[in-house]
Amino acid sequence: MTRISDIFPVKGLIVSCQALEHEPLHGGDTMAKMARAAVQSGAIGIRTNGVPDIVAIKKEVNVPVIGLIKRDIPGSAIFITPTLDEVKAIVSAKAEIIALDVTNREERLESVKPLIEYAHLRGVLVMADISTFEEGLAAEKLGVDFIGTTLSGYTPYSTQQEGPDLVLIQELSKLVNIPVVAEGRIWTPEDAAKAKNAGASYVVVGSAITRPQLITSRYVKAVSNFND
Ligand SMILES: CC(=O)N[C@H](C=O)[C@@H](O)[C@H](O)[C@H](O)COP(=O)(O)O
């Protein structure tokens, strides 16, 4: 059975290269270039959304890929790899790891079991995107390979804050026996160092590196009082 330490023998930074259809950088070519830039500078892995981007990135760089598929299902709040269809597509695209929602909503902690099993039977590891400490513990019990704090702040009952959820990273890192991935709203190298020092084995940074429109708006906001 493959383990996370086989896939990522060293700990480090994983860069999330994602641009949805409405975003300016949407497209496999652009995301592959983003991934190349990230790997050139020392990223140990890439997280990305959708089969075309997974395939383009795997052609471009030689580091493990965490694949997910964002899909909106009417009437459901679960959008990160919601069903077995997406899991199958990610396995076919040959991502080494599948990221999926493991939150305590809509009976997900039960319905996600066959998705985890499908991936594992095909030698693909599973990253659980969770939003609270309890969900992290539940994810470990479900047999996932590592846990990301990705959805903290994105479920109505989780901590809402501007920066990374360092408390969650720290509590989970102390209590679970699988690696914890710090992910979500890590905007600065200082945030990344704090996440690492809180006990995370891996740190995922997305928007702060790969979403120029969001980066720009932070700078615009910072100088918005120029003419006062
Ligand atoms: C909540 C959600 O949909 N998160 C997504 C999960 O894949 C991505 O849109 C984020 O960019 C990713 O988690 C990295 O986080 P940040 O971009 O904050 O560094």
From TrEMBL:
Keyword Isomerase: yes
The organism's place on the tree of life at top rank: Bacteria
EC id: 5.1.3.9
Catalytic activity line of the entry: an N-acyl-D-glucosamine 6-phosphate = an N-acyl-D-mannosamine 6-phosphate
Pathway: Amino-sugar metabolism; N-acetylneuraminate degradation; D-fructose 6-phosphate from N-acetylneuraminate: step 3/5
Keyword set, alphabetical order: Carbohydrate metabolism, Isomerase
Function field: Converts N-acetylmannosamine-6-phosphate (ManNAc-6-P) to N-acetylglucosamine-6-phosphate (GlcNAc-6-P).
The protein's name: Putative N-acetylmannosamine-6-phosphate 2-epimerase
